[in-house]
Amino acid sequence: MTVNKEKIALAVKDILEAVGEDPNRSGLLDTPMRVARMYEEIFSGLEKDPKKHLETVFEEEYSEMVLVKDIGFHSVCEHHLVPFYGKVSIAYLPADGNVVGLSKLARIVEDISKRPQVQERITKTIADLIETELKAVGVFVYVEAEHMCMAMRGVKKPGAVTITTAARGLYANDADARIEILTMIK
């Protein structure tokens, strides 16, 4: 699927007119195509398969927790098409010493978040992908984000943070292991 920038630009022009703006005034002349290019960039995850980042694993004699924390991300709420942003922390227990390059975890977050989304789905998708593809003994994903749909409109509560978690394998059943991860994340 390729983003149809011309169609987006026409729609943006219609929106500008619908809110009472003049899309032909100097400050707005290039806005429709600028927005179209932005949408192509912020929705680039629609054309990507994050699973590909887990195809290459390294065999190490390592079976302890691997934690990459505070991976910054931004996404777009599928309900209002406004941004939400925050950070993701991913912990996993390798199976049979199979570890993945640390940057691959950040790439997974990037691919999954760059599409119309909800935070809960981001959290679940990352956990399920790592559990399935790495066959990890345990996976824990922690996502913390601020949603502009809550800050800019509706309830108008800037600064409110939403936290979602997903636990798989050992971390789903071991409260002490979850506490250890949460302590390290915080």
From TrEMBL:
Q: Which reaction does it catalyse?
A: GTP + H2O = 7,8-dihydroneopterin 3'-triphosphate + formate + H(+)
Keywords in alphabetical order, please.
GTP-binding, Hydrolase, Metal-binding, Nucleotide-binding, One-carbon metabolism, Zinc
Which SUPFAM superfamilies would you find in this protein's record? Tetrahydrobiopterin biosynthesis enzymes-like
Domain of life of the source: Bacteria
What pathway does the annotation place this protein in?
Answer: Cofactor biosynthesis; 7,8-dihydroneopterin triphosphate biosynthesis; 7,8-dihydroneopterin triphosphate from GTP: step 1/1
Any one GO CC term of the record: cytoplasm
GO MF term set: GTP binding; GTP cyclohydrolase I activity; zinc ion binding
EC number of the protein: 3.5.4.16
For this protein, the parts annotated as crossing the membrane are none
Binding-site positions, Zn(2+): 77, 80, 149
* Enzyme class, first EC level, given as a word: hydrolase
Single Gene Ontology BP annotation:
tetrahydrofolate biosynthetic process
Tell me, how does this one assemble? Homopolymer.
Q: What HAMAP family has UniProt attached to this entry?
A: FolE
Name-wise, this protein is: GTP cyclohydrolase 1
Report the source organism: Brochothrix thermosphacta
